[in-house]
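Regression test attached.
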Amino acid sequence: MASFKKTQIRSLPKIGQKVTADTLYWRKLNFPVTVKEFGPIDYIDVMPIEPYFIAVSSAAKVQIYNPITHQVHRHFTRFKEAAYGASIRSDGKLVIAGCDEGHVKLFDIGSKSLLRIFKGHKGPVHRCKFTTDNVHVVSFSDDKSVALWDLPSETEIIKFSEHSDYVRAGCVSSISSDLFLSGSFDHTVKLYDARSPTGSTISVDHGSPVESVLMYPSNSIFVSVGGTELRVWDMLAGGRLLARVSQHHKTITCLHLASDGKRLVTGGLDRHAKIYDVQSYQVVHTLDFPSPVLSLGITPDDFTVVAGMANGLISMQHRQTQAEARALNPKQSLKVQKKSQTAYRFRLNADFRSVNRTFNPATDVEVATKTDTNFVSRYDMFLRKFQYSKALDTVLTPYIRKKKPAITVGVMHELIRRNGLKSALAGRDDSSLSSILTFLARNINDPSHANIIIQVANTLLEIYESSSLTPQSEKLFLQLQEHVNREVEYVKHLMEIEGMLHILLASTTTQARRSSTYAVQGSPVKPMLPSAAAAANATMIFNVG
Amino acid sequence: MVKMANKKTRGPDKTQANTSDIVVKKLDDATDIVRQPPVFTNDSKYICIASGRQIGIYSVESADKVHSLEEHTFDVIGLAIKDDNILLSCDASGETIEWNINNGTTLKKAPLVVAGIKEFHSFHYPGNGKVLVATPSTYTTNMSSLWIVDSHTRPRKLFADIKSTPHSIAFGCNQGNGSLVVVALQDHSVVVKDITNGVDKKHMTDQRKFTCVALHSEKLIMATGDISGRILIWHDFVHKSRPVKTVYHWHTLPVNSVCFSSEGEYLYSGGSEKVMVKWRLGMSRKQFLPRMGSSIKYIVNAPDNICVATSHSDNAIRFIDSTNKINRAIIGLVKHDPIRGFADTEPIKESVMPTGLVFDPRSHGIFFNAQAGFLQLFDPQKNSLIFNMDVANRNVLTDERNLVIGNAEVLRVAVSPTGEWLATLEVWSNMSAGYHDMNLKFWRYDAVQANYELNTDVTMPHQDRVTALCFQPGLLGTEMPCLVSIGRDLKFKIWRLVDDTDIYRQKESWSCDVAGDFRKLTPSALSFSEDGSLMAIAFQDTVTLWDPTSINLNTTLSHTLVQEPIELMEFGRDNCFRYLVCASKSALYAWDVISQGLVWKVGQLHSSVRCLVPDPKSCYMAAVLQNSEVFVFSPSSSKPVHSVPKMNSSEPIAALFVPRPNPLASGPEWLINSRLLIVDDQQEFLCVDDVSSAGFNQKLTTPISHMDSLPWTPFSAMKAEKQISAAKQLVPVVHQTSGIQGYKSVQSLLETSASALPPMSRICSLFMSDLMIKHGPKAVTAKVNSVDRTSTDLPLSNGHIDSKTQDFSEETTLQKLLTLDCQWLVETVK
């Protein structure tokens, strides 16, 4: 009871993108480092173990980049024509790539030597993958076939030729070495089991040419993209469609898992990469790129995001480290540092005062949490002492006035409630008057605050209308008037538009009613409410204008 | 016409038959505990508080009630401690009773005999068998005369024409020799009488009126407060005609009470600033205890100086310890201070208790205004305050000397049919600044925390004052709660709960779904049919009926006979669901919403209808008139079932039918399940009840189970409210279960998405064992049946209406207007 209740600061939620944990997380990516290649970037594969080398296939070569230095670690150029779909084995020692002449080539990353060539496809091989047992290779070719190869003996084990168009997408199961998926331009996605050589076990229709497929680590769900759609299929239920998501407005080209399998990333020709929540398939964040995205790679720790684009650019973005953040914003970081120091001191004192003398900072760190509940802001302190002018002065400092106008308005509101606005505004000198006037002029057209600002402006005019003003203040008053006039003009336009809309709405509803036999007398048209700005301005015309 | 005549003769008959056993009672426990200053016992362990006709003895340590003394038949006007454990009390008729404080028994009763006077204003006991009483002054009204009554001498008049408030008389200053000085206040002067030495003095200052006076019990010092907030300390005021005065001036508002500490070292003072000031006499130091919640009426110091008790206008007594902190409080039902600062155009009924009485189905309590910005929940069964809740969450502002500064006031309250949601409308307006604020707040009851949590706060829900708030009742309103508000900005708005959940958090909030208006008329009243399927909004004299789900206008009802603006409107309940009763300034009438005709009208009422309240448990309805007449009637006919004549001069403000915990065995039908509660403008509760159902203080016939009062736990939520164990149903269940053995596990397997399933190898054995038929000992199955509270509700479905058409067809011949101005109201009054 005896505690002073803080002044309520009302800040309306901002319209637009909401700040969520995900946007904060993905916004922490640094400015990208870009590398220019000669042709479009066909495929990017990330080594699943440290140091997370990135295999990029573009034009007639496969390059292995170091994600930290952005330098080419190895490059393989032994291709006659274009190389496609280079993928690194899970132990990070071997890399495999398909090429235009229909071969699948296996390289050693350490020695750069060509170890095996798998020949047998009649068309270019766009995707090839190691199976989980690391001794087999699956290749997906434009000759409409999918083949499984034995690594040591360099021989073909099985070949499935079920597709009727190019096979341009494929992936392998992360659990079983016998399962693999293929996606083709004939709109189908097929699941094969190497143990049943007769044909595919599941075949689903995606509805448009499949650009990429992905199997979840749990192996119960797979995802296919193609066209502007993302489709999620249930593998255990025999290929039941679980979800259809269409968030891109151009073809989706690539697919990747991020955040330990909790987020799904798709890149498309519309130059965006969308990040989805894998439970709800809602977009949680969007990354923008300068050119159509053809391929994506994300390191398992989310530290690096690599995107390959149609114009041959590779963009590599790193997550901001703490040291970097500190370097970028030294002021803020200093504050954080200071805070942590004081918190530590507080902790120490608190514990020495208590009975428990066996204090060990190393283990008992989580003991104290400093709560800021007793913090009283300066304006509240002055309001508590009924020093209204001082309270208003504290919230008219440039920082609060510009960055946090809600606080200034909140205090003005409280002053109106306390009937102390007049005394707070009266008797001000030129400089403090100018700060009030600039604040009013800046915020008078903000609909969320207009109500109070207009009240303050009216009071101000009432107080200073008869007193002689310096030219500077006079100019500011005129400026305020100009703002108001502009707003009034603006609202007039809006009201005209509203009137037009009313006519349109009324005509549509009457038509609808005429068509239905249901006759109601005077059923109300949902009237459009004047916007907050409009309502505020309606009163302003009376008061100021 | 024959029918009308019949009604005229029959109506009053029935009324008379019932009046004999229906009485209007005053609720005693709800009276205020701050009308008289409390009195500490000599050992400072107990405090005696007069509340109406009762006296409560409370422990200072725990602030709990120890004894309740109820012997007086009139309001107690004064308390005093006679000896160490004897309490002396006096009521307005002059009866004095001596009580034993330790066991609460009556020791002695004696009437005061003062020159044949039968009415007394205040009572003081200086000691030695002397008694000071104030009686009404013979010539001037609102003034008192002070008498001293001794056991062996005739009563002697000390002063005439003194102020009659309890603060304006003080005694003390025995100066160690047993002398007695009595002082009293007149408007601009202090009159002093030294009884032992026979000295008379009259001191005057300037034009400031005195408000309170205090004397030290031993030293010869006096303190007076005046309306400008100044405190004067008078030294040697008995002997000198121009005594030395010290000025202590901090208060800006009138000083309500001053009090010396027992050593005379300190002076406590308080007023409407809600600040207690502790002055150190002779020095300039003072200590403050600010924001005490409400303005201070009395300050009383404990004899041992350990603590100070302050009586506040919010019906609370707070104890302040020696470190200047409030550590305990005795809190009674709060009286709402009339709202100031509103425009003059506002009707008076808006200023006192504007929320009216709102029934809370969850706790069976009643919501109404407490102090500014607060809402209290009152339990009419136990007659106690459940809680007092801060709706506005703002600092309570005090007035300045020439300036009324209003506080946010709760103006409307609505409770959802389940009691889960509470909607409050708070308004703050400052007419001198030409500015007003309005907030519509939605609170959700949290069963675990056992309190209300703010869910949504809407600033300026309407552009102008909101007239009514109403949740959609019935089954339809439970899953998708919906609130309707009407305002003077000619709009009605429908607010719905919107699911705002995303992957990060679970969230629900309220938002405006529809805003509508009707021919630019002002909506004045709002009512839902009992099942929530029909919404009626009155626009001046026209009633509009809407479908609340689609917001389609079904019908408009208006008639040339009823052209006054409608002020109150209610749907009938139970089997009168089809009648819509409307009250305008001088008429009461009912519409039939199915046949869409005016059923009856009673015109030329004696005074306007103040409240129209339906009984939730029967079909009856009560109309409370401004001159405090009450009529109970069934909406189907215009004749009253019962009428209560004018009760007293006070004006009713709000009324409510309160359901009884268990129905009466016998009595008129409308009283069996509920009783009528009325609040008057003094905020006293009156109850229209059957004689046989004894007073409120009687024990409930069924004790309330302790389970009801316990907070919910996850386990209690799992437990059904009622369990029926039926041993008969032990019939062979094997046949039935064999078919659906493992049905649940199969279903759960099918329903769970494949991605969420654990590996097959892990659930396989479990799944298989579920499918197996067990041949173990059969468990006794108890059929668990949770009681469905709403099952008794009759939804206004089409079928229901059809079944009604039979008796309706008879009425169609009389359709449109059955009775016209039958005038029964006028006649019963005469």
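Expected vs. actual: identical. The interface with chain A takes residues 289-293, 325-326, 393-395, 397, 400, 403, 405, 428, 430, 432-435, 437, 459-460, 463, 502-504, 514-519, 551-554, 556, 753-755, 757 of chain B (CB under 8 Å).
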